């Protein structure tokens, strides 16, 4: 018997709404880490997230599955600043370049409702206080926290109430929740102290609250005080983490990008007047125009930047973004083809090209690009999710079911993945 089209998907959406609206307060008797350790990983961020069978528990209703809309992460659409600084030269120690106001706006732009036990303004201030005291770059350290927590959205082994912003003690595939801290500021302090263990031989100026500090000092002489650059964290802080430091620095650059204001446009025009033959000036103005939704003018500036710097990966990336906004996906895909030969480790480019291939019904091509992305970043839940949706289109339903399960195991708080699991379950034949 087939379920009515309008009824079962509606039940799926109702189930998703129930998960979102009925989150019980965590028990307070034990420490947050102890509570998290006793909680399945899938429920550490969404307490009422349901369990789904490991294997597809029935047959698909072909009519129902043809008539539903699947959820994927949208294309990345934030332009890149000129890569005029070699990431391998950026030190962990140093002053901030982004202001607190820029960091606050950057966080809120990406997550309007971060799962924090304080305000966004507070968490930013804590990073600037704690990192500034020890000589760590506070803006970059905060970007590391944004990468680790998904802009404070969580969804992995660490629960939001642990105030653990950098995965301290979380062992990845072992699903250990890691350490907990009584307040957000102590969690920030522990993060900064752990960075100090890598970057400086001298001890922190305040009493040590990082439970892993002495482990690095005593057991890792190859690391203690010797990892002075953010890219030096590749494969050490994060494993395999092939582009871990670069990803952090890319967020840092994005946080400093110009906005759509008249002041930014005025500054951009002045840059071009002063340096009319420099790609960086046209990139800067192109980003301002892009943020003002003047995509045609932005495309012209990005094209000009490419004339002055024809081998700049950021130039092709920005050109592709503007072309996509104008509906010219053919040009965008050509840009990505060129870009990925120049910058094969740019995960955003693999995702965007794969998504464009998916939209053109090149499902094998989309899956191939997501697999390339996963070789660089194996904890990419949205790549796994897109693979699942592509397998749906290929009618490989049992494979798609396990794809969604694998994506959820990486990030249980991703609403696109959860929605797809609900929808697919609703598309099963009724027994």
Describe this structure in words.
- With 431 residues, the chain is an all-alpha fold.
- The chain folds into two domains: 1-81 and 259-431, Alpha Horseshoe (Serine Threonine Protein Phosphatase 5, Tetratricopeptide repeat); 87-255, Lysozyme, CATH 1.10.530.10.
- 54% of the residues lie in helices and 0% in strands.
- The chain has 19 helices and no strands.
- The longest helix is centred in the middle third of the chain and has 16 residues, at 184-199.
- It starts with 7 loop residues before the first helix and ends in a 5-residue tail after the last helix.
List the helices and strands and how they pair.
Layout: H1 8-21, H2 32-37, H3 62-66, H4 100-110, H5 120-134, H6 138-149, H7 184-199, H8 213-219, H9 244-255, H10 262-274, H11 279-291, H12 295-308, H13 313-325, H14 329-342, H15 347-359, H16 363-376, H17 381-393, H18 397-410, H19 415-426
